[in-house]
Amino acid sequence: MSDCLFCKIIAGEIPSSKVYEDEKCLAFYDIDPQAPTHFLVIPKTHIGSVAEVNEDNAAIVAHIFTVIAQQAKKLGLDSYRVVSNIGDQAGQTVPHLHFHVLSGRDMTWPPG
Ligand code: 5GP
Ligand code: ZN
Q1: Atom of ligand 1 nearest to the CA of 94
Q2: Catalytic site positions
Q3: Ligand index nearest the alpha carbon of residue 94
Q4: Strand 99-103 to 81-83 pairing
Q5: How far apart are CA 72 and CA 102, in angstroms?
Q6: Which ligand 1 atom is nearest residue 85's CA?
Q7: pTM
Q8: Beta carbons within 8 Å of 22's beta carbon, 6+ residues apart
Q9: Confidence at 7, pLDDT banded by 50, 70, 90
C-alpha cells in the first residue's frame, strides 16, 4: 500500500534500524521503545492487522513467530513479551500487521 508507513519502511523509503530481514518479513527496532529491547516484526505483504489473518495468509504469521524465536535467542532474551494491537481501543496506530517484541524490564499483567 503506497500510503502505508510500514510498507514505506519495507520499500526503503523510510529508514529503519534492522534486526533481521528475509524475503517474507522484516524486523526493526521501534522508534519509540517501550522497553530496553523493543523491535517490531512485520510481513512484507500488506495485511492490516491480526483481524485480517485468514487461512490464505496465515503462513506468514507462523514464519514471523519463528523469526521472533530465532532473533530473541540471538539477542540473548530469556524473557520477553510479544504483543499485537488490533484497532484503536487496543492502541493500534499503524494499520500494517506487526508484532512488538519487548524485553529487558519488569512487565505488569494484566496490561494497562
Ligand atoms: P502500534 O501502536 O500500532 O501497536 O505500534 C506501532 C509502533 O510503530 C509504535 O510502537 C511506534 O513507536 C512505531 N513506529 C511508528 N513510526 C515508526 C517509524 O517511522 N519507525 C519505527 N522504527 N517505528 C515506528
Ligand atoms: Zn503496509
Answers
A1: 3
A2: 98
A3: 1
A4: antiparallel
A5: 10
A6: 4
A7: 0.98
A8: 67
A9: very high
79-92, pLDDT tens digit by residue? 999 999 999 999 99
- Match 519463528 to its residue by C-alpha cell: 66
Q: Which protein residues have a CB closer than 5 Å to ligand 2 (ion)?
A: 1, 4, 6-7, 46, 96
CB-based contact 102:83 (threshold 8 Å) = yes
Dist. CA 15 → ligand 2 center (Å): 15
| CA distances in angstroms from 76 to 53, 82, 95, listed in the order given | 30, 15, 30
For the beta carbon of residue 46, count every other beta carbon within 10 angstroms: 16
Q: Give per-residue pLDDT as tens, 32-67.
A: 999 999 999 999 999 999 999 999 999 999 999 999
Q: Residue 42 forms beta bridges with which residues? A: 26
